[in-house]
Design goal:
23S_rRNA-intervening_sequence; 84% helix; 23S_rRNA_IVS_sf; Four helix bundle protein; de novo design (two linked rop proteins)
């Protein structure tokens, strides 16, 4: 996740200056939100609270993914940077989804 945030910060340095407070800022905040919500969730004791933060992290990842698509369509990204970023999104998404499903199943089992 850390690599993803640093990569996003690197590639958005080349975005148009008029997008500094628009797509640039939004993509940076969304990508940072992924790892920050994951860390905060991991630090929580209650599984239901952890799940909430992990789901928020997953939502921020989906937001980041859309903003990457939008940026590519606007011509702000090199295709190799887009492909690299989307590969990271897929890897992080798979990891987060597995954690979410496992935690959700654990919560359901504890209620039996």
């Amino acid at each position: 996740m850390d690599d993803f945030v640093h990569f996003i910060y690197k590639i958005t340095k080349n975005y148009p200056k008029e997008e500094l407070y628009g797509s640039t800022n939004q993509l940076r905040r969304a990508s940072l939100s992924v790892i920050l919500n994951y860390i905060e969730g991991y630090a929580r004791r209650r599984p239901a609270t952890q799940l909430t933060f992990f789901e928020t992290a997953y939502g921020s990842l989906k937001e980041s993914s859309y903003l990457l698509d939008f940026s590519k369509d606007e011509g702000w990204l090199y295709i190799n940077d887009y492909d690299s970023a989307k590969k990271l999104v897929d890897e992080i998404g798979a990891m987060l989804w597995t954690e979410i499903k496992n935690l959700d199943n654990s919560i359901k089992l504890s209620k039996l």
